[in-house]
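Action item from last meeting closed. Structure (362 res):
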């Protein structure tokens, strides 16, 4: 079997809404464009990002009228799909928290070479709660691909895995540039774009930092673009802080790039990440970034003072960074001029070569 004859199945929680899902969809396009036969499985009925290959939408099957697919039944629908298409390699991008489900998938459903992608530094989102079960399930799989070096280091130390490696998330520069044609607000603003999930994104930290900065008095607004369960909480906090005239909530869009490009800079205040797509996409748009140095990802993306600012996770330090990007014109000009070139090593072409080497080796 030649490399280009391999049938690859990419499995994701969905094809919309988050960074891991965006990465899975983009990977399907990259692999198919480079000669692989690609099949995609979405667990949930959420398909927003462009993808390539034959799709099995398990969520849509579950929602069909006159059909009642219990979860166990869906697993065997998946097994038949994998067998019918003679899948050689599975690339699994899902969160993996249910020990029983993961045991069934690995030992009964998949039954072929499998690469598990670890997208978050929070191991509770990547592995079952039982450390012993996690070691049993993943110690002998073909590869555990981590999206940051910090994640790889952490899971090696925690679980003793010898099959972990790092491949960064890619950026589809051509797709971003094509989608830059669009409307953007005619105002000065800094931008957060992502999921409104306080536990991970820590947006109350951002609002308090912005409140204490010079930005409101300089007429630089804060735009929050996205969706998520904590939108009501954030709107209440904006009112309590008296920021209703300075903070705007923008609805989620699968094409945020015109707004990203025109932002003064993009911000990230997460408690934890994996390899945050919002930062690399902002830089690809030529927009500098300000990020807390959370685990993991920002320190492997942000070169402090070169393409943005990386700060300790304190409101005082982050507020100082916001002020610096507004008041230090030389610093801002440097970060903006270096933004695009700082992520050239993450192009789809560069990252494909790493995946190609891995797929060839297993």
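Sequence:
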């Amino acid at each position: 079997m030649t490399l280009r004859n391999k049938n690859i199945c990419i499995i994701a929680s969905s094809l919309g809404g988050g960074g891991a899902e965006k990465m899975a969809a983009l990977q399907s396009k990259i692999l198919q464009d480079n000669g692989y036969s690609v099949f995609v499985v979405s667990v949930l009925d959420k398909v927003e990002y462009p993808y390539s290959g034959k799709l099995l939408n398990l969520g849509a099957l579950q929602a069909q009228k006159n059909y009642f697919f219990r979860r166990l039944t869906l697993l065997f629908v998946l097994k038949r799909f994998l067998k019918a298409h003679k899948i050689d390699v599975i690339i699994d991008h899902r969160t993996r928290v249910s020990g029983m489900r993961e045991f069934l998938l690995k030992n009964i459903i998949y039954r072929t070479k499998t690469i598990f992608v670890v997208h978050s530094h929070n191991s509770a989102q990547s592995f079952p709660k039982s450390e012993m079960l996690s070691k049993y399930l993943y110690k002998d799989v073909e590869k555990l691909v981590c999206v940051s070096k910090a994640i790889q280091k952490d899971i090696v130390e925690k679980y003793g895995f010898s099959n972990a490696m790092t491949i960064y998330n890619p950026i589809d520069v051509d797709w971003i540039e094509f989608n830059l044609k669009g409307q953007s607000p005619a105002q000065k603003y800094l931008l957060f774009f992502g999921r409104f999930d306080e536990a991970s994104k820590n947006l109350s930290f951002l609002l308090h930092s912005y409140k204490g900065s010079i930005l409101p008095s300089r007429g630089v607004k804060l735009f929050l673009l996205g969706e998520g369960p904590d939108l009501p909480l954030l709107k209440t906090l904006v009112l309590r802080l008296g920021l209703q005239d300075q903070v705007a909530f923008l609805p989620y869009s699968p094409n945020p790039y015109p707004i990203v490009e025109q932002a003064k800079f993009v911000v990230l205040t997460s408690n934890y990440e994996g390899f945050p797509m919002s930062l690399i996409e902002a830089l690809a748009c030529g927009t500098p970034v300000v990020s807390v140095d959370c685990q993991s990802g920002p320190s492997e993306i942000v070169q402090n003072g070169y393409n943005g600012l990386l700060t300790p996770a304190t409101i005082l330090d982050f507020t100082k960074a916001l002020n610096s990007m507004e008041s230090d014109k030389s610093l801002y000009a440097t970060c903006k001029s270096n933004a695009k070139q700082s992520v050239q090593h993450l192009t789809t072409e560069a990252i494909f070569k790493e995946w190609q080497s891995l797929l060839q080796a297993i």
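Note appended to the action item: The radius of gyration is 21 Å.
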